[in-house]
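User: For a benchmark we're assembling, each entry needs the component sequences followed by a predicted structure for the full assembly. Here are entry 17's components. Please fill in the structure.
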Amino acid sequence: MTSSDDDRFGRFADLEADLRALGEALEVPAPPPADVARAVRTRLAEPVVRVRRAPRRLTALVAVFLVALIAVTPQGRAAVVTMLRFAGVEISVGGPGPLPTGVPRPLPDERRVTLDEARQAARFPIAMPSALGDPSDIRIADGGRVVTLLWPGLRLDEFDGTLEVVFRKDLGEPWPLQVSGVNGWWIRQPHAVSYVPRHGGAPREERVAGPTLIWQRDTGDVNVGMRLECEDYQEALRIARSVR
Amino acid sequence: MDDDEAVTRSLAGDLDAYEVLVTRYSMVAHRTASFLGAGDEAEDVVQEAFVKAFRHLAGFRRDAAFKPWLLRIVANETHNLTRSRGRRADLTLRLESEPGRARGPYEPEDPEGVALATDSRTRLLDAVRTLPEREREAVTCRYLLQLSEAETAEVLGVRLGTVKSRTFRGLRRLREEVGRDLLG
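Assistant: Structure for entry 17:
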């Protein structure tokens, strides 16, 4: 803390002390820590379920997109499926992967909007990459949960995401590249993308996406998941870093 | 076993080591969830946060501290909960020295002193409850949970300067609300 901060907060020293005392006097009912540890352990020891359950109350916002990488599993070797959840994206590595039927279907309730309309209807602040000009097309879908910005050859999806990286250790191949500069992952190979609707249900809109950068923006209130389909890694990074 | 070793072993799949971390931070996790508005669902939030933390452990920066990283997940879970229920995150808290409750070991014995202390704390708690959400979160982390500014920034996912300014505005508002007569 700088000295000017000390001066600024010094006026409130008594209030700060009262607040600390208040915190100590507040009663928080909590089970014994050993019980919490046991309950957590029981849940962690449960087998990993490959198929997502219907979203539970607490996890409803977690998995927005289900990205399944088409496996390059050597013939005759048992496929080891690894799930990676990050910024509202769930990535399965090493499984057989769905066979995309090829014809892209729109997201639920997808409609074309202006940027202003999108800003009003989206459930999070929309970010624009300053490295690109105005998008040629803007779509919003599923009750403002996903906003898609399109430029020729580029697609940027912004959606409700969460903070944490999920990681399972049984790695299959190929594994996405972690990108520390933007706190994200680069998927270099073509892969199938499915959309998991807000109210649960089967994933839909399976299609093949090209190389994609997935990262997360922290707006202070909401963690916004971002996925940018872009052929070139350096270009994708440049665009991601220009997002404001 | 320190946090770093427990994290290393947990990453290798050692659930005993992770139990050490859960036991160590269970109480502060419950306090965080509760103070940030999880109410009587704090237990669910905390359990979910610990499960998520384990599954996301690989994303934890090893040069960082475990506690604020964990508490950020707790804060996010709490936020998701309150948002999904469309209700304002509220402090549903009780003071230990409310009437009818047993007296704590360090509280003054004279009934008048107890009543005065309880009254001023109740007023202060009410004032914290009515703060705008962002200021309330900053004040809650900094003082009720006694986190540092840097920890608060990490838990709330905002910059350090933002923590300073929200805390300052919150304190200023509290001072206006509870009045100088109460706080001297």
